[in-house]
Amino acid sequence: MDLKKTPLYETHLKYGGKIIDFEGWALPVQFSSIIEEHHAVRKAAGLFDVSDMGEVEIKGKDAQALIEKLVTNRVSTMVDGQVRYSPMCNEKGGVVDDLLIYRFGPEHFMLVINAGNIDKDYNWIQKVASGFPGATVRNISAETAELALQGPNSEKILKKLTDVDLSSIGYYYFVPEATVAGKKCVISRTGYTGEDGFELYCAPADAPALWDDILEAGQDLGCVPAGLGCRDTLRFEASMPLYGQEMDDDTTPLDAGLGRFVDLEKPDFIGKEALLKEKAEGLRKKLVGFEMVGRGVPRTGYPIVKDGERVGYVTTGSFAPTLNKNLGLGFVRPDLSNVGTQIGVEIRGKSIPAVIVKKPFYKRG
Q: What distances in angstroms separate CA 321 from CA 41, 49, 237, one per listed residue?
């Protein structure tokens, strides 16, 4: 199968990126090493290509009503220039995807969706949109490139390339029309690393020059090109969920600990009845963080056991470079979810001791 390439594919080769298949995309897993890039983002800055992400534009007088129906979080309280995170559920309350909602105006929104879900999400949104004649839905993924500059030095670096007062952009807010290094961009103070940072949306043709200019501007501030490997270890330390691991079509946002992004007071949204029922009857499973006590690295899918009985499974597990520990996220029976509970992780047929700890594992500042 031919892998899809982002506008930065040749650039990654030029910078020595090690290319892998990620959800059908040819993307760099690392440039120098995952650990080095991870520490650079925590201490200075890293630049990521996230052009594989999907973007869907929704416009018209019914745009807000359509999105309100699609997502679990409330959209009506958003203001222009604001970003909001939300799960999007099916009728059973399972998560179709988790996404970012950008409000450009009362009749103009953009949804940013996961790379592996673009076709699934777009078809789902179009199906629901048939009941909202005053909304037009357009998949603009192919005409949008996205770069993420993440880390404590991000603002200092970007400041060299734009006249926009970056300090005035709050977390989860954006500037719809900005110029960065002479290129037109949307600048958004968002990210998936647990650090301060910005995500830039631009025309695909402008992405390679923008990438070069940002790295050049960040050279004296420790900025490095960063790959998928550290993107995963960074989001994992910050306990940010990954679609397909911490949630899927059969896992609800309540199971995944995302209840704060579910507004059950909202008049109507897809999956509301199922989620109300689950809340009343109690969760089927609960997402927890745990630390390995014995030697071993937990991996996705490994069984979690207690007293010889299988009580859950690992969703993500890794060595956490910032904390220098082997940690994991996983689902367990709700009665075993308290911090301090002793569990085991089955690694190569052996139960290795672990203990449930507080999430997130890492919080900046």
A: 12, 22, 9
Cβ atoms of 356 and 290 closer than 8 Å: yes
CA-closest candidate to residue 148, choices 100, 103, 211? 211
Fold classified for 285-357: Elongation Factor Tu (Ef-tu); domain 3 (2.40.30)
Q: Assign domain 54-141 to a CATH class.
A: alpha beta
Is 80 exceeded by the pLDDT of residue 15?
Answer: yes
Neighbours of 319 (CB within 10 A): 15
Strands annotated E in the chain: 4-5, 18-22, 25-30, 45-49, 54-59, 82-89, 95-105, 108-113, 136-139, 145-150, 174-180, 183-188, 197-202, 223-225, 286-292, 303-306, 309-320, 325-332, 342-347, 350-357
Angle at 287 between CA 237 and CA 354, to 5 degrees: 70
DSSP calls for 295-341: S----TT-EEEETTEEEEEEEEEEEETTTTEEEEEEEE-GGG-STT-
Query: What's residue 41's pLDDT?
Result: 98
- Class for the domain spanning 4-50+144-237: alpha beta
> Residue length, the chain?
365
> Measured between alpha carbons, how far is 256 from 330 in angstroms, rounded to an integer?
9
Each residue's pLDDT tens digit, 229-248: 999 999 999 999 999 999 99
Quick one: tokens of 365? 């500042």
Cβ contact 151:47 at 8 Å: no
Tell me how far apart the alpha carbons of residues 197 and 199 are, in angstroms, rounded to a whole number: 7
Gap between the Cα atoms of 240 and 114, Å rounded: 14
CA separation for the pair 175, 173 (Å, rounded): 7
Task: Give the pLDDT score at 37.
Answer: 98
Give CA angle at 126 (125, 132), nearest 5°.
95
Q: Are 224 and 66 spatial neighbours (Cβ–Cβ below 8 Å)?
A: no
Q: Where are the domains of the chain?
A: 4-50+144-237, 54-141, 285-357
Cβ partners under 8 Å of residue 307, min gap 6? none
